[in-house]
Amino acid sequence: MPLEGGHLALDFVNTIGGLRDQPPSQEDELFASYDDLVAWCVRLGVISDADGGRLSRAAARDEKAAGRALRRARELRELIYATFRPIADGREPPAALLAELRDVDRAALAEAHLAPADHGSGSHARAMRWSWPPPKELTDPLRPIAHAAVELLTNGPLEHVKICGNCRWLFLDQSRNHSRRWCSMAECGTQMKQRRFVERRRRERSAPR
Ligand SMILES: [Zn+2]
Is the pLDDT confidence value at 2 over 80? Predict the structure, then answer.
């Protein structure tokens, strides 16, 4: 399970792949089932192992609800992608999508409480963060993800949200010079370098001597 996004919201949209200027590829769909979504959420610390187990068992008891929750996850993923892709392309995200994301976040925050994010040297937290009770509904793990997307919008740095030079994955460029071009060197960087090498060799061969 590759995590190249560098931010929860971007890792979430990268759970489906495909080439940069083509529709997402169903072959690169990580969320084939509701259980895949649960596994991903556990892996990224969105929910605990125990909560994941409970959700999986609840999903097994109600397949229809699991199907609906999976659809909701994919819809949220599309909404977040459609919001951040224009940003990565240097454009403004559509206002209608921002409003939609705000509504999802508002509903998520209605269930959240404020809790210490960490403890400094004393007993006082240095910062607080939104925290959600253990999930009850199958879609509950989506709440922190929707909120993470809005936090990235409000806190930035949006100028470092980029799209891979080869595929549709988005990432937060945290490299020192902010010169990162690929989702990962292994997945896309090497592939593109290889392609350029092959093309150059072909050109050289076909060039008149
Ligand atoms: Zn890529």
Answer: no
**Pairing of the two strands 161-163 and 25-29:** unpaired
- Retrieve residue 60's tokens: 């097994």
Peptide bond preceding 24 in cis form (omega within 30 of 0): no
- Find residue 29's DSSP bridge partners: 16
Answer yes or no: pTM beyond 0.70: yes
From the CA of 162, how far away is ligand 1's center (Å)?
Answer: 11
**For residue 188, with 0-12 CB atoms within 10 Å meaning exposed, 13-18 middle and 19 or more buried, which class applies?**
buried
Q: Name the percent of the chain lying above pLDDT 90.
A: 78
Ligand 1 centroid – CA 166 distance (Å): 5
**Segment (H or E) for 170:** strand 170-172
What pLDDT digit, counting tens, does each position of 19-56 carry? 999 999 999 999 999 999 999 999 999 999 999 999 99
| CA of residue 181 to ligand 1 center, whole Å | 9
Q: Rounded to the nearest whole angstrom, what is the distance from the C-alpha of residue 134 to the centroid of ligand 1?
A: 34
Contact yes or no for 182/192 (Cβ under 8 A): yes
Per-residue pLDDT at 121: 63
